[in-house]
């Protein structure tokens, strides 16, 4: 259940305050050039402690590849990766280990497992996603071989929305913009507003959420397996598995439910011998299968559950009501750091289905 | 890929204009009392031809159980079910078999499979969902044993939204209301407005979409398997696999992304020795695991793709642009008939996870 | 659990004395020419009532394809097949429904499921294998496209062993011989001895077992996924899932355990630019992956459990010891009719792995 | 494909001459007491360099648990384990990296993956099984809770067979005997003969194989999922996945194929209110489900492929025939060290099915 995928399969492991976080990527084709540097680049984008709006936990998140690569190329065998936990400060969790933090998984994990690692959220911590980003970096390299490019960015924070459009031609420039502002959005001016909203919430001891949009360009038509391994089903599952995600929509998503059919349908036309659609309201997926247009997904992220404000809750050991004020090191808004995680999950799904459909062979050399 | 689930597993088969639609339910515990009547009740709710706002295709959708049941009880062996296609009228599809219908899966299935059954959408037709409703009826019976009740209704059609709340105590009354209006909503007055919006679209040769909300009551805390078989991931995958669904949200979903943490977090309290939350913004799921509050999911359904209006498109055989006006028998709004399908998918996920977590034993007698 | 395979997936259903036996084949590529005749040919080889050494149950075993095929070609969607049970005579089972038949699954199924279909063994009956043969016929057609040919025959019955060797060049002639003798072996003279041993056992109210050898020719090197989806693992699992099979060996199997390494190792050489081995003691599989030599598997089948002789046993309802003498229609030796089942299981494994490794594409046209 | 199991799932990774070997055990219930010592005990039994008949590679095989355990108990989250490779000597492999070693996976892995780690067999090395033994130790602890005890021993080496019988009462004594002789058999006198046969082969530059028998006591009736996840199928798959295994039989296996039904059937009787069988020819499994008698499996292991004798083979780079004499550190007979691996695989299968059938709960505390 800690495994994702059908051919390209990711298994993650590790707790927030344990030895570290790791993963095993199984099913990656042999012959792919791969170095730790390829992976480190992505990890650095997710890493905590990058700016005033992220947690102060200092993790270098250096990845070690322990298997599956030989002389700079993948072997087709499982790729084991490990990221050590270094800056662990578990002390603050001792005193609140029986106090259920609202919005967190404390209660449900306790109900399910009985025995839990209460330090920093244990395995339910967002820290687990570092393993997904590591795996996603491999998937992304694989996808590049068939021309697929994936880009995610902050669409909305605290209700502040960016409406700029992205086109494939500008992708490098867009990436530069995204990585040059603290909130990872595509409009520098709106970035300032978003950052301010985050800092305001932070100074209030509160938190905010937002929306991330992810687009995959150059996805060939034919990816996705009806009826239940549809591309949209797999993407919804992948995205919803990211902590704090509470909604997923494909293409125009919920807006489509308010359109007329004549407005919602994407009309077909021919360009350079290829069949395209004039609009892309369906987000590149029809009948669960990619149609060759960009695959567009948007996800809703709730505000960070850890807040400084006083909240009413329960001491589960004493079975008594009480209150809590959460200290510790937290992101007042998790959206910017979730951007590379969302890219990773999109990469994993597309790599898996590219293998499943035969667009990428099992052996590259 | 036509199989859904881990322990309680559904495999569906069949094309819209073939012999019929069927399914195999594997992993149902032995000893469950089950008759064709149990299943027929649910099928009758999904059946076409029920009112002026549904397709005129006349299907009685009578289910036959072909295996897995003996002397009125399940054997623990696969339950095979079959629903014959009776009212097939494929003629209209012959002339447009090479004309891509906008919004439909014609193009993508053709790209993926090459050889397709173009009659009535073939396997991509919504007719496939009759098998899910049949399987869902079994799952629902199973869930009843541990007190879980599931109810879905039309939340919104063409932007007309019902805001009434549902509580567990009123569930029988609510069910009666839902089944007594053509749009399957919970407010009779708003039902009329919704029906009018559908009929207006129909007379325009157009279509409308909407939103369905589904609630599962009495779900015990502890269902869902982190990290990737989280209850919310599985529900998102299940719902997104329903044709025409383009968005899924859990609890307050996209609205949560615009709240503050202090507003979004559900505070815990104690009632009769049980830990509950004062609000249920998280929709009954925290950290991927049910928390004992009602599980609430909303899904966005796009307007029916088949419309009478003229649309621009492509003849894929001649590779020339052309136009199409779709005749034939279609629902101008698929939302009301999707309500039982949504209930079925929720039932399947919860039954599967109840087995996985041991809340329901593999053998009932 | 009633599903076999990873890409090319078979789900079977049905009880011996229920409506019939069926299956769903999912993951078959689109564009494969397929008729009911292709499947019927194989079913006819497994059919009961073919000679004096098989059961008297008269089943024509006519297959109906209910989905997944359109205009004579597969659609890439699930292929549902149904074989009706016609000659059902359940009466004899009523009186012994609580008496455990030694060697049968009566006791274990009852322990596992509580409620069982005691008529003719229910789902534990060998009759379930008719669905495997139907599915295997499709797999076999698929494999033919890449030149793979599979042949199984009776190697031994009641200790009488045939030592003739099979080579690919003679395959058509060998098939003719196999299908022209009642025991399905490759030496007509020994066939007589085997038949006599079966008839002797039959007249004694007893039964005999034997060994089947199955060989797949023209398997390309590279099939099989280490470490756990090795080709030999998958074959062992497939073969052991056939009722009455109690042993599986690859290549020289158990004999290899008594050889020296210098004798057991197959030396490599080059012929026409291909790397071959001088001997084939490893049965075409090294390190879990096919090496291009014929894949050779042998399976041990126990004597039919149903015998006329008096046996001591238990009445599970009364929990008292008793005796039983089994009447009814049974094969005194199941080996000849298991031959096509063994071919089917080999076909299923190889088709699945050919798809997994990309030797067969997901779309044929 | 490097993952085994359904609920209790093992994923292994690592190459013989890489950083180390590791695994992730997913699906272990929470609340199981577990220390590195529990695992180390089993690893020490598999460790190389234990006697004159094993390889001289010196590995301490110290296991580190990196996740999934907190305060001495399992969390229900993935248990990651790591065993460092220390005594690596890859030099000898450089010169023969293009020479196919007969009996080894060199050729097939090269065909499948193109790019391979030729050092010490890479991932095809028997060294990978250290991860299985680590995981098996956890499974074994779990099984102990419901009274299941597993014991494997060398039944035969180089044709020298031990015929002593094992009964549950003597299990501790038998274990002591097994671990006190170099060949891990249950008869000290025959142990000497076996050891001599191994040393003779070694001094000849040759190798020998053998047979291992594994018995699970106190398995409750009802384990195993028909039709395809039968207990015997799963065991066959598990055993055949061990390198060098070429045959598997359940109970009397191949011998059964030569018996009469009246001899092969195990008659039922009642003892202390339990239904037992007088004999156990079926090896504790009927119809794919355990019957409460000891589960007995025997596996055939081929002689070690690495031998000092000159063998004819091919240089795959030059595509020329050549010869090879393998130096390096090898076991002249792998059977004794495979004994704990066989126990591990049996433990994994039984733990998985105990969870699947509900005999072990998902949460222990």
Folded structure, characterized:
Four copies of one chain form a homotetramer. By secondary structure, the first copy, chain A, is of the alpha+beta class. Chain A has a single domain (3-356), classed as Chorismate synthase, AroC fold (4-Layer Sandwich). Chain A is built from ten helices and 18 strands. Chain A has helices at residues 36-46, 91-95, 106-113, 129-144, 171-180, 188-203, 231-240, 253-256, 261-264, 335-356; strands spanning 3-4, 9-14, 20-26, 63-65, 69-70, 73-74, 79-84, 149-157, 160-161, 210-217, 245-250, 268-271, 274-277, 285-286, 289-290, 295-301, 311-315, 320-324. In chain A, the strands form six sheets. In chain A, strands 1-2-3-7-4 form a five-stranded antiparallel β-sheet, covered by helices on one side. In chain A, helix 1 crosses helix 4 (129-144), helix 4 (129-144) crosses helix 10 and helix 7 runs antiparallel to helix 10. The longest helix of chain A is centred in the C-terminal third of the chain and has 22 residues, at 335-356. Chain A is globular and about 70 Å long. Chains C and D meet through strand 1, helix 3, helix 7, strand 11 and helix 8 of C and strand 1, helix 3, helix 7, strand 11 and helix 8 of D.
